[in-house]
Design brief:
Layout lengths: L7 E5 L2 E5 L5 E4 L14 H23 L6 E10 L7 E12 L4 H15 L1 H7 L3 E10 L1
Parallel strand pairs: 5-6
Antiparallel strand pairs: 1-2, 2-3, 4-5
Pfam family, one: OsmC
Protein name: OsmC family protein
Organism: Asprobacillus argus
């Protein structure tokens, strides 16, 4: 069974440094209104980045295999937090934006669907606690 371990070290004030099994590190902090100095990524927002990264890796890989690559691709992920503590994302919306001259709509939709429904483990984790919706936008240049 596969597992990952990260080590997170308090640096100062509200700043933490966390490693990754790949050897890379990142800094996490919070806003001044919560006692931090915005010297790093916010942990909850980083969860949204993880969701986009996971699904994005799937989509790019699948489109390459399908020979349906876009000229450019971005995702916009919006999470809505609950009002009560502990605050967590109860609604998440993922927008997939594809840019290019010759966008293959059917293959793009299939790649996104495969990521969302089959391959993206982070998406599946989010579905355990949030209502996740998705939209695909094609921007023909």
């Amino acid at each position: 069974m596969a597992s990952n371990t990260v080590t997170t070290v308090w640096k100062e004030n509200m700043l933490f440094e966390s490693d990754n099994p790949s050897g890379h590190t990142l800094m996490m902090d919070t806003s001044p209104e919560h006692g931090g100095e915005n010297k790093g990524l916010g942990p909850k927002a980083m969860m949204l980045s993880s969701l986009a990264g996971c699904s994005g890796l799937d989509v790019v890989s699948l489109l390459k295999k399908m020979r349906a690559e876009a000229d450019d691709f971005k995702m916009v992920v919006t999470g809505e937090l609950t009002e009560e503590h502990p605050k967590y994302y109860h609604k998440v919306h993922v927008e997939y934006h594809f840019y290019g001259q010759d966008l293959k709509e059917d293959k793009i939709n299939k790649a996104v669907d495969l990521s969302v429904e089959t391959y993206c483990g982070v998406m599946e984790m989010f579905r355990q606690f949030a209502n996740v919706t998705t939209e695909v936008y094609l921007h023909k240049q």
